[in-house]
């Protein structure tokens, strides 16, 4: 299959995407977090096609992207806390895991048969297309399963080119890491995945404590595999001293010892800005995802705000596999 890349600004881009989605085909689309591999949530062919195109080993549940809060309420039950969070953070990089509504018009493969559903209202083209479809759009990150997440049309094309008909190009992703996933649970919030909204912001908006379920707990996001986002080489985290020949992902203005021995260095944010670092993270991993690059060292990155999501992704990318 030939994969066409169209700029989002091309007047034919959205109508083409809409026609493909209505025909049950898949389209890679930009969201503010990362590029998504989008399909009609009501079409079993589309949902199964997403797993096939990504080479996903299992039927992980997918996020349903909605055009509005009312479309969200047609597929999920929002309690007061969920409503407050949606009103505060949507459209934006927050996903809520909520009880699936009994009459939700989405294919059971989209939720992997779970009694809950992950719902998010993104900014921009995906929400507009969900509106025209009249149904949520399911979209995992647009990369091959387990590999570096696509944050540009080129990165998406490297992974999924030849497998999908169309990629809409809106330049590099603004946020650069996936959405934060929250599951409201009584008087607390469970953080299933750190992401584009920092936990401090969510705690401030809700006034509720945020807990992180133990990894491997059944409640944790089923997609939270230990090894994920991985480039070909081995990754060493919190590197204070650089060893000879390492490819270095740096952060901030501190120079680690031995940096002159590095084969190459990319700095996620020379000024030490975690938002900028998040936006650059997957492009840096992709730049070092080459068969001849064996060893990647990452200098320490603070764990506050977006730093939690950045460190989570790097820890998974570094996990044994
Ligand atoms: O920013 C994002 O969230 C991107 C863009 C494209 O929207 N999407 C994304 O989707 O990251 P994906 O499929 O790569 O990750 C979705 C995560 C998975 O870890 C999955 O297990 C979890 O959401 N998830 C989905 N439904 C769930 C549910 N009912 N309960 C718990 N976790 C769920
Ligand atoms: Mg993903």
From TrEMBL:
GO terms for cellular component: cytoplasm. Pfam families: Sua5_C, Sua5_yciO_yrdC. Keywords: ATP-binding, Cytoplasm, Nucleotide-binding, Nucleotidyltransferase, Transferase, tRNA processing. GO terms for biological process: regulation of translational fidelity; tRNA processing. L-threonine binds at residues 33, 65, 120, 139, 179. ATP binds at residues 56, 60, 116, 141, 193, 229. It catalyses: L-threonine + hydrogencarbonate + ATP = L-threonylcarbamoyladenylate + diphosphate + H2O. Gene3D superfamilies: DHBP synthase (3.90.870.10), Threonylcarbamoyl-AMP synthase, C-terminal domain (3.40.50.11030). Its EC number is 2.7.7.87. It is found in: Cytoplasm. One of its GO terms (molecular function) is double-stranded RNA binding. Residues 11-197 form the YrdC-like domain. Its main location: cytoplasm. Belongs to the SUA5 family. Required for the formation of a threonylcarbamoyl group on adenosine at position 37 (t(6)A37) in tRNAs that read codons beginning with adenine. NCBIfam families: L-threonylcarbamoyladenylate synthase (TIGR00057). This is Threonylcarbamoyl-AMP synthase. It comes from Jiella flava. The lineage of its organism: Bacteria, Pseudomonadati, Pseudomonadota, Alphaproteobacteria, Hyphomicrobiales.
């Amino acid at each position: 299959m030939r994969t066409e890349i169209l700029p989002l600004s091309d007047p034919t881009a959205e109508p083409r995407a809409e026609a493909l989605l209505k025909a049950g085909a898949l389209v890679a689309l930009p969201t503010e977090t990362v590029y998504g591999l989008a399909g009609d949530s009501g079409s079993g062919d589309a949902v199964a096609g997403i797993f096939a195109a990504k080479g996903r080993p299992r039927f992980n549940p997918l996020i349903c992207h909605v055009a509005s809060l009312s479309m969200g309420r047609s597929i999920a039950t929002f309690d007061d806390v969920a409503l407050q969070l949606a009103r505060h953070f949507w459209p934006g990089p927050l996903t809520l895991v909520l009880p699936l509504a009994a009459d939700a018009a989405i294919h059971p493969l989209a939720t992997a048969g779970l009694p809950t559903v992950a719902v998010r209202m993104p900014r921009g083209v995906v929400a507009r297309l969900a509106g025209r479809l009249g149904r949520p759009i399911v979209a995992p990150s647009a990369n091959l399963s387990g590999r570096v997440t696509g944050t540009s049309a080129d990165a998406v094309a490297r992974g999924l080119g030849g497998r999908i008909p169309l990629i809409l190009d809106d330049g590099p992703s603004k946020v650069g890491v996936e959405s934060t996933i929250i599951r409201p649970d009584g008087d607390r919030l469970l953080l299933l995945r750190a992401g584009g909204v920092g936990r401090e912001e969510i705690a401030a908006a809700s006034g509720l404590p945020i807990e992180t379920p133990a990894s491997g707990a059944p409640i944790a996001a089923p997609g939270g595999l230990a090894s994920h986002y991985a480039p070909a080489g081995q990754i060493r985290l919190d590197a204070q001293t650089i060893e000879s020949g390492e490819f270095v992902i740096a952060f901030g203005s501190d120079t680690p010892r031995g940096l002159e021995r590095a084969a190459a260095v990319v700095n996620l944010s020379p000024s030490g800005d975690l938002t900028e670092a998040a936006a650059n993270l997957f492009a840096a991993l992709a730049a070092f995802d080459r068969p001849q690059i064996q060893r990647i060292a990452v200098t320490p990155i603070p764990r506050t705000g977006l730093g939690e999501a950045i460190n989570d992704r790097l820890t998974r990318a570094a996990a044994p596999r």
